[in-house]
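INTERNAL AUDIT FORM
Audit reference: QA-55
Scope: verify that the stored structure record matches its stored sequence.
Auditor: D.O.
Record contents follow.
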Amino acid sequence: MKIVIVGAVAGGASAAARARRLDEDAEIVLFERGEAPSFANCGLPYYVGGVIQQREALLVAPKQRLVDRYRLDVRTRTEVTAIDREAKVVSVRNLETGEEYEQAYDKLILSPGASPLRPPIPGVDLPKVFTLRDLRDADQLHEIVQTAKHAVVIGAGFIGLEMAENLVHRGLKTTVVELADQILPPWDAEMVAPVAEYLQQKGIDLKLSDAAEAIEEDGQAMRVRLRSGQQVAADLVVMSVGVRPENALAVAAGLEVGPRGGIQVDGHMQTTDPDIYAVGDAVEVRHFVDGSPIQIPLGGPANRQGRIAADCIFGRDSTYRGTQGTAVVGIFDMVAAMTGHSEKVLASASHPYLKVYVHPKDHAGYYPGAESLTIKLLFSPDDGKILGAQVVGGKGVDKRIDVLAVALQAGMTVYDLEEMELAYAPQFGSAKDPVNMAGFVAAGVLRGDHPMQHVESLLGDAADQPPFILDVRSPAEFEAGHVPGAVNISVDELRNRLDELPKDQPIVAYCQVGMRGYLATRILMQRGFKVSNLGGGYTTYGAMVSSRGA
């Protein structure tokens, strides 16, 4: 068996190692255009920022280890330029010597990855305008940040924000420009609005709903001209506006690709040619939640896909379940994580859903150091099946998103979240873990225990009879900030002041995070009032208002 793999790093290197474990006699040739066949792509920003101090630490599996341990034929700085499907050979060029030759295969695995986008604006090709894809990019940035003073990052996605954080670590005055009206566009806007405020507190100049129109040289430095008319000085510019699949080989070979360019594969990672497989950032797969076609460039899925492709080549019945988009990003001391679909995706697809927000502490409040989390849970109104989740906060975010990601993949419902038995000690969690709390609230909505109204409907309420807004917090909390037009009656006084509430008008009750609003809703429902609880309370109200720029 001759297996040729085009592209290493996550998917290709995993496929090669798995293939060797399955067959000691196979001839496995791994072509990699770069200098290192397996490096920690996600660690590059932290090397630039000095958090990872040794470059060698980024080499997950050095070339010689792959040769010695797995007996792979690893050819770095070598590019595959064409595929002859009929002859079952690939054309190859050595990038250092210029030598060209052909390599035969029985099975071919494509793992070319995705390349950073460079928007077609004047100045995008200037020497100090960078992208961050490989070690060479990281080396150049690592060198220039030693003396630079000002940086502009174009794009506020994963890489853009990680780069911004690390540039600040290096002492650079950093500006982030984002075309969308929010950072981290895959998330729902109200979830990341507090993160945007936090970035500004850390000194990052954040320019949302704006775009770079030109990059111009200004002596030894540059200036970035924005659509808004502003000009920002920069010693370096980092482009982080997204990636496109490296599909040129596949397209030239006549393999099918999707509308966004992703190489189309089946559940076995097999392309439209039965002898060619494709894995990683270059492929179009199915979303785990609803089976929709999707391209999400993540390392974990790429590794699994490489393993599955090798399994299937050797006759094992291995199938990729789909990508659910589980992701986490840390920015200074804040963390944002998600899994499954966001609300914006569900809404655009007209997929029925309900949502709840909870704002618990990461561990028992009586134990020192407890920090607040915000969990947004999306679920089916029919059976409570989990459709997606987002968690934002400090400590404990990664733990909760991982639990919710497993629950989603297992097909669990919000009722299952109520019953989950999770580890508890006061420094790690609570007897009612934040995941349990999200389940309690969501299941209560489905059972009709507390009808819920959401902030966006309150902000845009154009009903003939606007609701009576009831703030059930303490007078001090009310004075510190409240929903316009709200009447303050604390939950502890509510039973004695029912005659102050209208029986013929809908009531929306709220507190700071939702718990006291829930108690008020239960009291009033049993007294014949038409009442609903404001989802997430005043905390979610503030985040929603902030996300809308109000």
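Auditor finding: record pair retrieved intact. The mean pLDDT is 95.
Action required: none
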